[in-house]
Amino acid sequence: MTATKRTVAFFGATGGSILACLTLALKAGYNCSALSRSPSKLQTLLLQRSISQATLDSHLTIIGGDIRDLQSVSQTLVPSRPGTTNHPVDLVVSGIGRPPIFAPNPLNPTFDDPTICQDAIRTILAALRNLPAASPPKPKPWLFVLSTTGISSRARDVPFLLTPLYHWLLAVPHKDKKEMEAVFLAEASKPAADRGMENFVILRPSLLTDGARLGSGQIRVGEEDEIGGTASPAVGYTISREDVGGWLFDELVDGKGKEKYAGKMVSVTY
């Protein structure tokens, strides 16, 4: 960690993995911003995780708005706080998504927003490309995004027993996340001056659970480099949202893993 902590913008912070990462960032003293359709809900969730009101007031800026609204996203990337000079954040963490709707037929789940992931990333990238220049100049933000296993075009990254579940139950969100990843790769292929981000890491967890955090020692990590054409994913059944958020914070936000995993899809599982 550097002496001056990086500033971090969060999208999808009321979801389990990103909420876990935001919690750790606030406990470590990072200055954070978060976009939420329900700011009061996000505050309540953080208070329930033993984040004090004083910490929320001093280290978190919550912007109320929708992920498809360019102005709201831009405000999250350049948060305004009284008494401070507004600068673009250093890191962007996104885990936007929607859960399946199992009623009225649990065997035929539906999704009320089948393009939310790709739309979210397109909006974030558009806002990043139009960020005001920082003074003094600083590198563009890094972007870390939550995706999923089961969508690799290079290697199998889910157990055979889960393949029917992934192709049936999760076909709609997986199509969305695959398109989201394609948007990333298209952005990464642009000249450095034209793209909105310094670099990126796509995190692909296996099937998410609500279990407790077990720690990095219980997590297996694999890599896929679509640009380089290599793939050695970690194949497993599940991982908790708490462990995904913890790994994301420890390795990418607070640690030096972003250089190791730059431009790659990283699979994490037990």
Helices and strands, in N-to-C order? EHEHHEHEHEHHEEEEEHHE
Q: Which stretches of 5+ consecutive residues score pLDDT under 50?
A: none
Distinct helical segment count: 9
Order of neighbouring strands in the sheet with most strands: 3-2-1-4-5-6-11-8-9
What shape does the CA trace take? globular
Largest sheet: 9 strands, mixed
N-end to C-end Cα span: 26 Å
Task: Tell me the fraction of residues in β-strands, as a range.
Answer: 15-25%
Number of strands: 11
- Helical residue percent band: 25-40%
Task: Determine Rg (CA atoms, Å).
Answer: 18 Å
Q: Can you tell me about this structure?
A:
- With 270 residues, this protein is α/β, with parallel strands linked by helices.
- The chain is 34% helix and 19% strand.
- The protein is built from nine helices and eleven strands.
- Strands 3-2-1-4-5-6-11-8-9 form a nine-stranded mixed beta sheet, sandwiched between helices.
- A hairpin with a 4-residue loop joins strand 8 (220-225) and strand 9.
- Helix 4 crosses helix 5 (116-129).
Give keywords.
single chain, 270 residues, alpha/beta, nine-stranded mixed sheet, two-stranded parallel sheet, 9 helices, 11 strands, 19% strand, globular
